[in-house]
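Sharing a chain and its predicted structure for anyone who wants a worked example. Both blocks are below, sequence first, tokens second.
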Amino acid sequence: MDKKIMIGLVIGSIMIVSGITLSGYPAPRGTDVSIKSAALVQNEISLTLIPGTQPGKPQVLLAAYNDNPYSFGSGIGYGYSTDGGATWTTGNLPFPFNPLTGMNMDQEFDPTATSDTLGNLYIGHIASEIGGSSGLYVHKSTNGGGTWLSPVTVALDGPPSGDPDPLYRFNDRCQMTADTFSGSPYTNNIYITWIKDRGFHMPQPWSDVYFSYSTNQGVSFSSAVRINDIGHDMGNMPIPAVAPNGTVYVVWMDYNVTSGGNGTIYLDKSFDGGVTWGTDQFVAQINLPPLRLNTAAGFTDVLAKGGTPIAVSPTNSSELYIVYAADPDGNGTDEADIFFIKSTDGGSSWSSPLRVNDDSTKNDQFLPWMDVKSDGTIDIAWYDRRNDVNDSLWDVYFAKSTDGGSSFSQNIQLNDISFPTPTNLWMGEYLGLAVDSNYAFVAFTSSLTDVVTGDVYFDKVPNSLSTVYVDDDYNASTPGWQIDHFDTIQGAIDAVDVNGTVIVYNGTYTENIVVNKSITLQAGSNPVIDGNGTGDVIYISADWVTINGFTIQNSGTNWGDAGIEIATSNQCNVSRNNISTSNAGIVLSSSNNNVVLNNSIINNQYGIVGSSSSNNTISGNTINSNNYGDGIYLSSSSNNTISHNTITSNNAAGIYFDPSCNYNTISGNNISSNDDGIDIYGSVSNNYNTLSGNTIWNNSGYGIYFDWSRSNTISNNTISSNNYDGIWLFGSDNTTVFGNNILSNNEDGIYIEESDNNNVSDNIISNNGWRGIYIEESDNNTVSDNTIGNNSVYGVYIYSSIYNTLTGNTLTYNFDGIRLGLSNHITITNNTIANSNYSGIWVSSSSTNNTITNNTISHNRYGVQFSDSNHSTIANNSISNSSWYGMIFDNSNNNTVSGNTISNNGWRGLHLYSSSDGNLIYNNYFNNTNNAYDDGNNTWNITKTSGTNIINGSYLGGNFWSDYAGSDTNGDGLGDTDLPYNCSGNIANGGDWHPLVTPSTPSIDYITITFGTENEIPPGNMSTGFTFTMYATAFNT
């Protein structure tokens, strides 16, 4: 297993999770359970484990502790658990034999525990003999703590000659760890550190840092080596740690300080399994205030001097962590806090201290301990007196970091009930902390049941808090309080693990919540989160966050404040929430691949706001009555899907795109009673967006408005009853408008202005207040296969535009079917135009070089009308049943009219007046009561030319006239008499010199039949196969 045992001084008591479970809740932290409760003291606990297969249940948990260290004969106690700490089996280690005196040692202390990957457990400790020797010993168990082998001597010292204080020449303060990294060249090496005191009662006591190692699972240990440099020889509690690559680090506190503070942290390291060591590296200089007990006699010092635990990242051998207690201001006005520092270069440089405890200042925090689990989570536990203003009662607190020590979680209290300082004023020098992949296990001293000396307790905290619960009715009596049960949502978010779930029950939570990790925030019933009018109610700054089922209200009113803000975060899901009375319902800022689903976003200033956010899905939401801005607003955002939302009664647009929104899809939405339905707007293009299958109706402005946008698609929408135009394209090119129903809008169905190369096809455009389609100053557009009817003014009006094409459309019951004004090179072909109140096609206002071909134009007042328009071609059209004129030209010159069938029109077939000159009219079919009128100088025929004419004759010349009374004398299909045809004088100047006539068929008076003489018909019957020849001659008399 990849683990490192970090050892630090801790005051306290030991707690055990009882496993008590409340219905509907996960197993809480439980009631404190004693590992060992006996007369006199149990303290200084070291904890290790052998990992198991079940969460929260290591194969073995081992706690080693001082057991009555203040009486001669005291020793090392231990307890082991195989059920995750619910129950413990305890015992005591034997006293080692001292070969220097031939007697057993009579006092043991400073236990340290570790384990290897082979399932072995180890306990190291100091042992001494009153009056002389002291030594360092390691015990080993190969059966999970059930039995222990005889101790192995690591170091043994007797009183040296010449020492002025021989009784106190001893080994002290040991700590131990094992290399458990599979990739290390020294896997399962055991490393142990300690100090040797020299002249403990001298005016200047000295203590050096020593190190030893075992390469054979504790069978023997190397000779002890001093690793501290000269001058750094007032060391205290050296602590070892192992890196994944096998590097061994040792950290200690040195009290030989020449300037500033009263302690210096040093680091040394070995790259060869502890054989050789380098030069001490300075880490930090800190202030170590005394720990004080407030008694009736005043403040009295409590004996609690801790170490500086070190840990190494399980994935980076150069990333080191140290935790320590220090007075932050150095003058005693602020009592000790817990600080964390980090190195990413193997200890050469260190970060600024980060305060781990999150209480207000001037509270005591002491004796921290640290461990790191395999996923890099850093766990820290310590003693804490924040809950007693009189500085008498103690608690044990815990925090963790999931971001490599950049920040730490909200602190949680582990013990159930605060406990007093032991009256013997001895808290020990460390507590125990060990981790597996699921839990942090903590062992500590508590004087709750033994106020004189304290007992050993155990507790555990889920390292993977996969589910945490919130209820505003929870309090300190709730099992799991501040562990997995909280009364604030933020507290639960801080506590839950990455990818965990926070379930929030009914209540109103006045909070501004920050979600900075991947979690699910799930409403358990109908909780309300109220932002109290400031900032974001919920601010999401992590990927893979889910927010589901809340009522969220009352954000701040500044731009950017929101019910929910997703900031630089991806793959989040916000669904089934009710969001109201906020500046914006939801804000997406530089966030991608998120889902906003089935929310009710009502009565905010803005509905949903997205900026620089792409590949998001906004679907199934109700976005209503947002009273300042848009239902949905996007800027610089692409590839988003906005679908099946109901967007109504917003003060601005239902959906609004600002510049640079590309490749978005807006589909299946119901958009009504807003200002505009959809605005795609901006001075920078919004390109390649698709608007499909939406119902856009009853908006007070436009149904859809595109401004300076390119290559967008508007298809299969129903756009109706909007106060302005159904669709307005302004400065927008290459747009496809396809398959839409554009109905009953108050102004135009489609308005295209300064927009080129658009394609409008297969739409139904009817009952609009002005025009079905209006095209102004727009070129190269195609309008095809649309059904355009019952529009109050024009079916299609093209103004000041060139090179547009209208083809295949059906235009009925409009005031005018098609009108051109100041427009050139327009092609109008293959359309059906009927039942217009005025003109089927009206070409006006100096429109030139237009082409009108192959249209069917019927039952209008005027079939085709030209006003002041020249140089156009009107060919191959069917123009019939106009109530007034089939065609009328007013001051229109040099146009060509050919190949048209102009029939059954009420007043005239073709009427030219008011200086309409130079027009060429030939090869048309006129069959009207009054076929033509012309008071100008126009040409009614071309020179006789071979070719099939309109009545299938062999020559082109003039026109077919239903009332031409002349005859074709030479059979060429052109009239030869009564020329020029002038429609009974209605053609004032000239007329048709080659009127088309149907060639006459010669009559037959009689037929003579003769037979050839060689094959006369024989008399009688003829047999099959008989042949003969017959000759017939027709005679015309």
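Comments welcome. Confidence is low (pLDDT under 50) at residues 1-31, 161-168, 200-204, 294-299.
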